[in-house]
Amino acid sequence: MAEMYDKLKTIELRKKHVGPSCKVFFSHDPIKIVRAKGQYMYDENGERYLDCINNVAHVGHSHPDVVRAGAKQMELLNTNSRFLHDNLVQYAQRLQATLPDKLSVCYFVNSGSEANDLALRLAWQYTGHKDIITLDHAYHGHVSSLIAISPYKFHQLGEAEQDSGVMW
Ligand SMILES: Cc1ncc(COP(=O)(O)O)c(C=O)c1O
């Protein structure tokens, strides 16, 4: 593993190298997470946090099956989805087996932002309408199409709000 910096150095380097619009959580006292397992994340001092905020790890952090499958696949091949490969169609089949027959077509994406951007385009195409209802405080992702329909586009965030741990 790379050298572990103390938290102040990490903050200083983040300020230098990471764009300021990518806000850190709890910016008055940011948490430095160094590992995670199951539902828990741990900071550099071994302090344990119940993860109720990070929506990436659907089956828990560092799930051994996911880690094994990811490593095995990366050892073999990592391409985009425009080449033919059995894994892609087999995965689609497995997903479809859990869904109603009509839902038989899959689009594989890399993030929530991509999924929501695609959902928008599908809805526009299907309905022929462009109206959108967005709930206050909703977050749909970081791409331009989603920022355009997001509440924060309509609110001018003050410093206090920007500092409250909100990510955008
Ligand atoms: C409700 C919701 N939608 C969309 C997204 C965007 O997902 P991603 O960060 O994978 O692009 C997030 C991410 O936090 C989210 O919480």
Task: Name the structural class.
Answer: mainly alpha
Alpha-carbon Rg, integer: 20 Å
Topology pattern, helix = H, strand = E: HEEEHHHHHH
Helix percentage range: 25-40%
List its salient traits.
mainly alpha, Aspartate Aminotransferase, domain 1, disordered C terminus, 3 strands, 168 residues, 7 helices, binds pyridoxal-5'-phosphate
Report on this model:
The chain has 168 residues and is mainly α. It has a domain of 77 residues: Alpha-Beta Complex (Aspartate Aminotransferase, domain 1), CATH 3.90.1150. The chain is 38% helix and 7% strand. The chain is built from 7 helices and 3 strands, in the order H-E-E-E-H-H-H-H-H-H. Strands 1-2-3 form a 3-stranded antiparallel β-sheet, with no helix packed on it. A hairpin with a 4-residue loop joins strand 2 and strand 3. The longest helix has 16 residues. The protein is globular and about 50 Å long. The C terminus is likely disordered.
Brief synopsis:
The protein is mainly alpha-helical. The protein has helices at residues 7-17, 64-76, 86-96, 112-127, 144-147, 151-154, 159-162, and strands at residues 33-37, 40-43, 48-50.
